[in-house]
Design brief:
Largest interface: A-B, 31 and 31 residues
Chains: A mainly alpha (223), B alpha/beta (218), C mainly alpha (241)
Number of strands of chain C: 0
Structural class of chain C: mainly alpha
Order of helices and strands of chain B: EEEHEEHHHEHEE
Radius of gyration of chain B: 17 Å
Oligomer: heterotrimer
Strand content of chain C: under 5%
Shape of chain B: globular
Number of helices of chain C: 6
Order of helices and strands of chain C: HHHHHH
């Protein structure tokens, strides 16, 4: 356990040094959300219907942005080599990355959600349902991003490639998440359970895929 | 196909069963067979110097032994933990050397109290700049931080070092030699790639790689 | 059997022997199937002649799915058993599967216009096929996205494995999404129920499509293996045979 938390602490310390990146991501989130009403026009009925989907799309894009660089810095520093020989291993390392990424991206987005909901005139009563669904969904999207980042690590145009790899597989998360957020009777809905199931599957496969993809890799210098 | 050259008389191996055994190892890099059916044994308490011209495959061999490159055929067994110090320092530029070292120790389940870390840093006179973010340090300073982790390594480990003395000043060079000597006499194994002399006072076995073929036949 | 086929030259010899038979099969079943489908089979009482597109659309959809499963199986062989031909086979299959997926989308769209009045509808099958098409594109982009081509084999195989788990989840979610959102209408995403007089040409076209798929994949594997052998020969050090 100690190696796992040490890796998370390390990533958080590094993220703290680049804390302006968090601001950039949050602004990105707000801008995407603001673009929709601006493009649609002040048609309140339409905006109310689209409110939840807009938040979901904005969250998806904001979380997945920058995933292509998730492992790149560690590869270039030679840290990945050190991790592969350590007690932690690449699988747990990938999970630690997921945790630290969620803490620096998913969690801030969740905190911003009430404000965004107000912007989009989503009723306050719906907030608990929305935030619960976003909680599960953001965790799932983070794990999906880790899988994509591990697969695309070292490729040319890793950013675009990552988007292409991840977006089709993000569809069930988006679908179940939007459905779960709109549910009328209570927070726990069948859609939320399905979202949870997707999260469980991703939790199981992410460390395995990441360890295999990052296992015998080479540094950027080709050595 | 290992080319043995004894600089000093070698003491008897410490523990005969613990050894790095390489068996008919082949490593393809793209279309080139860089390591060609290499067989070699490094016993505990031995220091192996990996020599050869640029492109001979020294880094390739070390990275393969570190598990970072797949062997095309053949195999190797290493019964102890491996510590790898490659061309890259393994340090994040955003945080301090001390933090880097501490998180490295934690990942390797090495119990490192602050005193132990200080001791490891002092072994390379790195204590004075260990608390500055690494991106502010010079190449040589970073190299010393990278090597400082050797001071935290367990005694029965295999050290895979890629040109560890490159870019080091005389003092650091001396420290490195001392560290290698201490590790070897405690029963550890060291395999280091180098262009020039390294730890000349330590009895060493030389493994010479020459282009596509490994060494001359015995 | 798979060990036997692991040797590339042995595989190619076997494939070359099988190839003429496959060509004959594809040509005969294709010719008869097309003739029956386009000429002799009856038009649908509701849709008229436009229904004839199913003789292309259904085989194309089937092969697109078949190719995707094939990629997954190749992925398993590559990751678990490091079978030498698994990577070659996967790289051969991917573009073919992608083309079949695209063909399904295009024929589906051409069918949709007269049937539903729109070039595209977000019905469950078309949406799943669209996602599958993007999956193929992603696979091809990943396998070829590295500076050193062989570096892409492992991530691509892993992607195929992930796809094998996740794409059924995608299919399930899209089906559910579609049934929840689809307004009650004439949309029959399954197409017409298959009448016996239409079954024969359909089956023939399915066989022809499978044979055609196999032929193209064998040709591609031949080309890929030849390419690899050529590169290896060219880069052998001088003085060696």
């Amino acid at each position: 356990m100690i190696p796992f938390f040490a890796q998370i602490r390390r990533d958080l310390a590094i993220a703290w040094q680049h804390r302006q990146d968090l601001a950039v991501m949050l602004v990105f989130f707000v801008i995407i959300i603001a673009l929709f009403p601006l493009a649609i026009g002040p048609r309140q009925a339409v905006l109310t219907e689209l409110g939840v989907p807009i938040i979901w799309i904005a969250a998806l894009l904001a979380i997945l942005a920058g995933f292509d660089r998730l492992f790149a810095q560690d590869v270039r520093d030679g840290w990945l080599d050190q991790v592969s020989l350590s007690q932690l291993g690449l699988g747990w390392y990938a999970l630690a990355k997921a945790v630290s990424h969620w803490l620096t991206a998913g969690l801030p987005l969740l905190v911003m959600t009430p404000i965004m909901a107000a912007l989009l005139d989503i009723p306050m009563a719906q907030l608990p349902v929305l935030i619960t669904a976003l909680l599960v969904g953001s965790l799932a999207l983070t794990l999906l991003g880790v899988i994509g980042a591990a697969l695309a690590e070292g490729a040319r145009h890793a950013g675009a490639l990552l988007a292409l790899l991840v977006l089709p597989l993000a569809v069930p998360i988006l679908i179940f998440g939007a459905l779960a957020s709109n549910h009328d009777s209570g927070i726990v809905s069948p859609h939320l359970m399905l979202l949870g199931a997707v999260l469980a599957v991703l939790l199981a496969i992410a460390p395995l895929v990441a360890a295999s993809a990052l296992g015998t890799g080479e540094t950027e210098t080709g050595l | 196909m290992a080319h043995d050259q004894q600089q000093n008389p070698l003491p008897a191996p410490a523990a005969a069963t613990v050894a790095l055994k390489i068996d008919q190892l082949c490593v393809l890099r793209g279309p080139v067979l860089v390591i060609d059916h290499l067989s070699f044994t490094l016993d505990a308490g031995r220091f192996c110097c990996l020599t050869g011209p640029n492109g001979a495959g020294k880094s390739t061999l070390l990275r393969t032994l570190a598990g970072r490159l797949p062997a095309t055929s053949g195999a190797f067994t290493c019964p102890v933990g491996r510590i790898y110090v490659g061309h890259a320092d393994g340090l994040s530029p955003a945080i301090s050397g001390r933090h880097n070292l501490a998180s490295w120790a934690a990942l390797y389940a090495i119990d490192a109290k602050p005193d132990t870390i200080d001791h490891a840093l002092d072994a390379f006179d790195a204590g004075s700049f260990a608390d500055r973010p690494v991106h502010l340090l010079s190449r040589g300073q970073r190299r010393r931080l990278a090597l400082a982790r050797l001071g935290l390594a367990p005694p029965n480990s295999l050290w895979l070092l890629d040109e560890p003395n490159a870019g080091l000043d005389h003092a650091a060079d001396t420290h490195l030699d001392a560290m290698i000597a201490a590790h070897v006499s405690a029963g550890g194994m060291v395999m280091a790639a180098t262009h020039g002399p390294l730890a000349a006072s330590v009895p060493q076995v030389r493994l010479e790689l020459a282009g596509n073929k490994a060494g001359a036949s015995r | 059997m798979f060990d036997y086929l692991a040797n590339p030259s042995r595989f190619m010899r076997l494939a070359n022997r099988v190839l003429p038979a496959l060509v004959l099969l594809a040509v005969t079943t294709g010719a008869i199937g097309l003739y029956q489908g386009l000429v002799t089979s009856p038009p649908d009482y509701q849709q008229g002649d436009t229904v004839r597109i199913i003789y292309i659309h259904v085989p194309a959809a089937w092969l697109a799915l078949f190719g995707y499963v094939g990629l997954g199986i190749c992925g398993i062989f590559y990751i678990v058993w490091r079978h030498p031909l698994a990577d070659v086979a996967a790289r051969a299959i991917a573009p073919v599967g992608a083309v079949f997926a695209l063909l399904t989308l295009i024929t589906g769209s051409l069918w949709g216009k007269p049937m539903w009045g729109a070039w595209w509808v977000w019905d469950a099958r078309l949406t799943s096929m669209l996602i599958l098409f993007f999956f193929y594109l992603g696979y091809i982009a990943l396998a070829n996205g590295f500076d050193r081509p062989e570096r892409g084999s492992r991530p691509a195989a892993l992607l195929a494995l992930v796809g094998l788990i996740n794409v059924p989840i995608v299919k399930f979610s899209v089906d559910w999404w579609n049934t929840l959102h689809q307004p009650a209408s004439l949309l029959r995403s399954g197409g017409p129920a298959v009448d016996p007089t239409m079954l024969t040409p359909l089956v023939l076209m399915l066989i022809a499509a499978h044979a055609y798929f196999a032929i193209i994949v064998i040709y591609r594997m031949r080309a890929l293996l030849g390419e690899r052998r050529l590169t290896a020969l060219l880069l052998r050090p001088r003085g060696e045979a």
